[in-house]
Amino acid sequence: MEEFIRQTRLPHLYYTATGQSLGKELRIFADDLRSSNLSDVSGFGDEQPGTWHDALSRLAYVLPEDSPSIVVLDELPYLIKADPSLEGVLQKLFDREFSRRPVLLLLIGSDLSMMEAINTYERPFYQRAADFVVDPLTPYDMVQALDLPAEEAFDAHLVSGGLPMICEEWPRGGSLWTYLEQALHDSLSALIVSGERALAAEFPPQAHADQVFRAIGSGQRTHSNIAAATPDVPRATMNRALQLLLEKRMIAVDRPLSTRPTRESRYRVVDSHLRLWSVRSSGWRADRSTITT
What we know:
Arc Repressor Mutant, subunit A; 3-stranded parallel beta sheet; two-stranded antiparallel sheet; globular
């Protein structure tokens, strides 16, 4: 989105939520609005908005009426979690203000299930947005970005999952082993920390989703095997963790094709990088025989 805004050269506001309290988020939003290039906002002074209705009304006031502009609200799930009434506020101001101006309103969030739910029936913002999923890089993208032969680009894609953060630290033209030998000895490399950050951002510690996720990634695909691999997690908690992981699209469940109903479910980690990370976090070393196994 930042690159898109840079190329358009349009007046814009880019606000990113940080998961703090409502009051702190509103102060950050007001500061970002004052420093934006949307319009002359000097008349706002230092007064802080007390609600999202107040904050977004100020935004509508400074939107250009005769020229295009862009407004980005990033990490929207954080904001809705802190203030569920925000969806209704967005609906009201979108209908009365934003839709009457040539503004591109972009609502961004990494929680796919929550972002899709915002635009569903009986939710305030229903039918006011078009969903667009930003997919990871493809193997072809990695050929172009990393200057790799096709077969090595597939290896790089399986390890990275197509995540740009990992691809940025991949040496251009470097093989899989060149990268792994570099990344696995750096505790701060994206290969090491991205999985941990993804789980920490999406799940509270008491959900035990990380333990269940690691069990699945290490090859425990049935319900009973996952339970055996997580003996310290109560069965009800494990079932809830599985449901949370499914809702967040971090795992998927497969069932055999059969003419009769079956409970022989098989769980798997969806993202190839997270599959590798879950095994790495269980303690394998950076030697070729272990990785090949």
